[in-house]
Design brief:
The chain has two domains: about 210 residues, Orthogonal Bundle (Triger factor/SurA peptide-binding fold), CATH 1.10.4030; about 90 residues, Chitinase A, domain 3 (Roll), CATH 3.10.50.40. The protein starts with a helix and ends in a 6-residue tail after the last strand. The protein is an alpha+beta fold. The chain has a four-stranded antiparallel β-sheet with strand order 5-4-7-6, sandwiched between helices. The protein has a three-stranded antiparallel β-sheet with strand order 2-1-9. It has 13 helices and nine strands.
């Protein structure tokens, strides 16, 4: 199902693709490394030209080149580098995941081609005006105020303004196909209520409190600070004076924390759970040191009634129905298509 959700969200992907590189687009500046940078770009252009010649899939009478696939892989590779480092292709675990995603993305490209090939049959026609309007919205959303900035951002993705225009055209065709195929999807109240009951955790706010703390190295320090608090100093003053972590400048504030949070130390939460409104704990030992904890705004677990959650539940059910209808449509088109995948051509 994940594959179809990606196809459904193609317009969002178009924007995200630009967002992924828009913030990295910088004005060209003369420097000692300019020649090296130019050589690097020339190497990229050469590699892309070679990749254009390599066919990784055939979809009826159209082909998908390795260059097209590589363009779609840019965002995945950025994430892989953030998670595993720039040498992620030397990491066996990383490459196992990468290869799995590469095949899914190629399959997504195949199915995108299939949908676009059916545009005439479905009576869908996209005008240049619609394409240009979408591109202008994407440029504005990513702060790409000049043609140069836009072209630079695209080149970082291995794309040109012309190829991106074609990409947006295909995106609009897919979006309109989705709308056409799913126009009869509807949800009744019983379906929404069943979803609500089966997913009650989504509509439940866990018990918790606004918490603040003062973290120090020893129990004796914590006891001494607690004594100063009892003698009249405010918790915020003491946090600023004695706190040893980044919260000291905010009076030790940590914000609202559910008692069942998995993001905080279990001993810390156990020390906070039984505190009353505005109460400050004694020293609570965790792996980080000793904490004095203050809780305010205590709340019990709250389950949103169905009437409050109804719209959200209806939307969730509707979305699942739309995905299934679109999936069925894709499968029907795919069954009649001639598709070849050349896995030996993948990087």
């Amino acid at each position: 199902m994940k594959k179809f959700k990606k196809l459904v969200a193609i317009l969002g992907l178009a924007t995200m693709t630009m967002a992924a590189v828009g913030c990295n687009s910088t004005e060209a500046k003369p420097s000692e490394g300019a020649a090296t940078e130019q050589k690097t770009q020339e190497d990229k252009d050469k590699e892309n030209a070679e990749a254009e010649k390599i066919i990784v899939a055939k979809v009826n009478d159209q082909t998908i080149s390795l260059a097209e696939l590589n363009t779609e892989l840019v965002y995945l590779e950025q994430i892989m580098m953030m998670q595993f480092g720039p040498e992620f292709k030397q990491n066996e675990e990383a490459m196992t995941y990468y290869k799995e995603q590469q095949k899914l993305i190629l399959d997504y490209l195949v199915e995108s081609k299939l949908v676009v090939q059916q545009a005439d049959e479905n009576g869908i026609s996209i005008t240049d005006e619609e394409i240009n309007e979408q591109i202008e919205q994407i440029k504005a959303a990513n702060g790409l105020t000049t043609d140069e900035a836009f072209t630079t951002a695209l080149s970082q993705q291995g794309m040109t303004p012309e190829s991106y225009k074609e990409f947006v055209k295909e995106s609009l065709i897919i979006a309109q196909t989705m709308e056409q195929v799913t126009k009869d999807a509807a949800v009744n109240e019983d379906e929404a209520k069943t979803y609500y009951e089966e997913n009650i955790a989504k509509y439940t706010t866990a018990a918790g409190a606004n918490m603040a703390h003062i973290l120090v190295a020893t129990e004796d320090e914590a006891k001494s600070i607690k004594k100063e608090y009892e003698e009249g100093k405010t918790f915020e003053e003491l946090a600023a004076q004695y706190g040893t972590d980044g919260t000291k400048d905010q009076g030790g504030a940590l914000g609202f924390i559910p008692y069942n949070s998995t993001q905080y130390d279990a001993d810390f939460l156990a020390g906070a759970k039984d505190l009353k409104e505005g109460e400050v704990s004694g020293p609570v030992k965790t792996q980080f040191g000793y904490h004095l904890i203050k809780t305010t705004g205590l709340t019990d677990e709250v389950v949103a009634p169905f009437e409050e959650a109804k719209t959200s539940a209806e939307q969730a059910v509707l979305q699942e129905k739309q995905y299934k209808l679109f999936e069925a449509y894709i499968n029907s088109v795919r069954e009649k298509a001639e598709i070849e995948i050349f896995e030996d051509k993948l990087n």
